Amino acid sequence: MMRQYDLVERVKSYDPAADEDALNRAYVFSMKAHGAQLRESGDSYFSHPVEVAGILSDKKLDCDSIITGLLHDTVEDTVATMDDINRLFGPDVARLVDGVTKLSQIESQSDQTKQAENFRKLLLAMSEDIRVLLVKLADRLHNMRTLHHVGRLEKRRRISRETMDIYAPLAERIGIRDWKDELEDLAFVELNPDGRLSIINRLDFLRNRGGDLISLVMDELTGTLKKKGIRSMVSGREKTPYSVWRKMQRKNIGFEQLSDIMAFRVVVESVEQCYQTLGVIHSRYQMIPGRFKDYISIQKPNGYKSLHTSVIGPENQRIEMQIRTRDMHEVAELGVAAHWLYKQGNYTEGKQYQWLRELLEILEHADAPEEFLEHTKLEMFADQVFCFSPKGDLQSLPRGSTPVDFAYAVHTEVGNTCVGAKINGRIAPLRTQLNNGDQVEILTSKTQNPSPAWEGFVSTGKARACIRRYVRSQQRKEYISLGREITEKTFRQHGHEFRLKAIKAVLKQFVLGSTDDVFFDVGRGQLTGFDVLIAVYPEMKNGANPVAQAVNPRLGGDSDNAVPIRGLIPGMAVHYAECCHPLPGDRIVGIVITGKGVTIHTIDCETLENFTNMPERWLDVAWDVDSATTHVGRIRIVLANEPGSLANLTTVIGRNSGNITNLKITDRSADFFELLVDIEVSDVKQLTNIVAGLRATPEVNSVDRDQH
Ligand code: MN
Questions:
Q1: Of the candidates 167, 331, 512, 603, which lies 20 to 30 Å from 628 by C-alpha distance?
Q2: Which CATH superfamily is domain 631-705 in?
Q3: How many A from CA of 61 to the centre of ligand 1?
Q4: What angle, 0 to 180 degrees and rounded to 10, lies between the N-to-C axes of helices 271-284 and 213-227?
């Protein structure tokens, strides 16, 4: 274990202004707080925070980060409190320790359903101060190094999985490559011991066959470059078993073909020398086509720069080469952290490290967040998708969510006024299902209202509730105006003047609060216009009531006389269900509704669930194949909003002898229509042909039979 003196010396070696006193106090505080606690290995617990601080000092991190490393488990695992930390080490350290502690708490909830939310919190915590993540990664690295002491296999595997899925990608993302490599390889030990062992054996074999190729190549390269006047530092290493494994998986190469196991690095003085060196290497060894990458002219998002190439080296071994300057090397080795440390040159004043802010900037803006998400494997969060606003705000939504869900998640008003969406910069229909990492831009218009059709495809409770609320209020408005119309007409027919005041005066009779309530009830058929009339003019009570029946056209059902269905009771009225629009060829069932007759549904209609406990209502029926009746099938079409697209649509339907009986635009944006089209057909086969024909039409985005 590193001693107190060693740690302080190490920090002072790269940061002479480090607060020596605070470091010493943190060391002692942590030692006392952890006291006699032991780790599963039997080591004193205190060895862990000291090692974490050591790992952080390898990366030349600032004094507060090192202190946080020493203290990071004291609040979680000992009697020490946040107040103690704040009092003894100041608010900055307290905030960092608090951040790391919270991350640890998030981590300990292994509940799958919480992981998506945890991931969001993780992103949030890191975005507040990247040092929280650095300390957390160092903590995880040391825990992985000592993971073999953990007794329970299941726990080891869970921690390894999480390391592989979250922490290694995060380490890569902020450019700390050696942490990433080590985290992956340590997790690989637990997750696939057999795979790892077979790679190690293969590596041994290749090594034995080739002899000490690494030093051979190193000597040869250094000599060749020296002759060309290039001073270089060449180093070589074997790749980690996990990186070899990944390459085998990715490139789908077999074990026998596995040959490029060595990587060499050439560090030179200038950018020009990088390209000169590349030339020397390519003329000395045969290059492997397709492997050259120039990360100097196009640097990686995390700041990494190098030239990469692969060549056939001595003994016919494929070897990888990285060529870079010393500046680039610092960045590659120490992550973005070092880059700014180096550039800044002056870190003696103990001021906020500029690179932290710059790194945060990168995480927040400069880079495509989807790449970040791609790197952190999101399969873990299979039930969630993570999408971004153009500003980079993250929304986590249930899988299957659409731009409408996204809009409502941003704000109710955004949802209510949503007219269209751009996904990754391209206009897409509102019913498009979002994918992980999609950038979603919602287009709004003040004049737009929620469409009832949205309810058919949204996934979130919030969106559904908002749409329903709107639709209900909208329906109410329609019923009110219909009811008022009916009432006015009734009054007129009976020679009475329609006056709101008169109706208001008799509200009590209906136990209703307003005239609108009365019209609403008339509109939906709860009351008749005549009921209202006799409330106002009781003397009309014995008069004729010619309009009492069937005043509300919406209440009428469609009954068909030429019944093409077998298995019915004679004289029974037949209706075709509006929910599923059954067609000859569909498997069907009849549901008996007392006083109404039989309603025919398709066998897979969702409405049937309401009748599962009423077997007495089910009627076994079948289509009469000889009947020549026509039926109305309903299809839902999403169509590009272009000139002529509607004409093409009707042409295709007409060509298949379909007769359009009704066409309703249910949703309309600048770029897409959504339509419900009722088509008279003889059977389901004909409708299927029409659907197929429409799908082959370029302007048609999607077609489905509407059977909600
Ligand atoms: Mn820890």
A1: 603
A2: ACT domain (3.30.70.260)
A3: 18
A4: 120
Report, as an integer, the average pLDDT of 671-697.
84
Cα–ligand 1 centroid distance for 108 (angstroms): 12
Protein residues placing their CB within 5 Å of the ion ligand 1: 73, 139
Dist. CA 201 → ligand 1 center (Å): 34
Q: With helix as H, strand as E and coil as C, how does 653-690 read?
A: HHHCCCEEEEEEEEEECCCEEEEEEEEEECCHHHHHHH
The whole-angstrom separation of Cα 528 and Cα 524 is: 9
Q: Catalytic residue at 76?
A: yes
CATH of 4-191, one of 1.10.540.10, 3.10.20.600, 2.160.20.80, 1.10.3210.10: 1.10.3210.10
Domain ranges of the chain: 4-191, 195-338, 351-468, 470-623, 631-705
**Token reading at 667:** 């949703």
- The answer on pLDDT for 188 being more than 80 is yes
Q: Tell me which residue of 579, 574, 580 sits closest to 629, measured CA to CA.
A: 574
List the catalytic residue out of 20, 43, 58, 77.
Answer: 77
Q: How remote is the CA of residue 26 from the centroid of ligand 1, in Å?
A: 15
H helical segments located in 175-212: 177-191, 193-210
Which sign does the torsion angle of CA 303, 309, 314, 318 carry? positive
Q: Which CATH architecture has domain 195-338?
A: 2-Layer Sandwich (3.30)
Residues 159-169 pLDDT 10s = 898 888 778 87
Q: Which of 58, 76, 238, 624 is catalytic?
A: 76
Under the banding of pLDDT at 50, 70 and 90, the label for residue 292 is confident
Q: What is the pTM of this model?
A: 0.49
Nearest alpha carbon to residue 419 among 428, 411, 636, 409: 428
User: For 533-543, what is the mean pLDDT?
Assistant: 80
CA distance 362 to 341: 16
Q: Is 92 helix (H, G, I), strand (E, B) or coil?
A: helix
CATH 3.10.20.30 assigned to 351-468: yes
Residue 143 CA to ligand 1 center (angstroms) comes to: 7
Q: How far is ligand 1, taken at its centre, from the CA of residue 97, in Å?
A: 11
Q: How far is the CA of 141 from the centre of ligand 1 (A)?
A: 10
pLDDT in tens, 438-494: 788 999 888 778 887 888 899 887 788 888 888 788 778 877 888 888 888 888 888
* Helix, strand, or coil (residue 588): strand
Residue 62 Cα to ligand 1 midpoint, Å, equals 19
Give the pair of three-digit tokens for residue 259.
């040959």
What is the helix (H) or strand (E) element at residue 243, kind and residue range?
A: helix 241-251
SS3 assignment, position 38: strand
Using DSSP bridges, classify how beta strands 574-576 and 597-602 pair: parallel, antiparallel or unpaired.
parallel
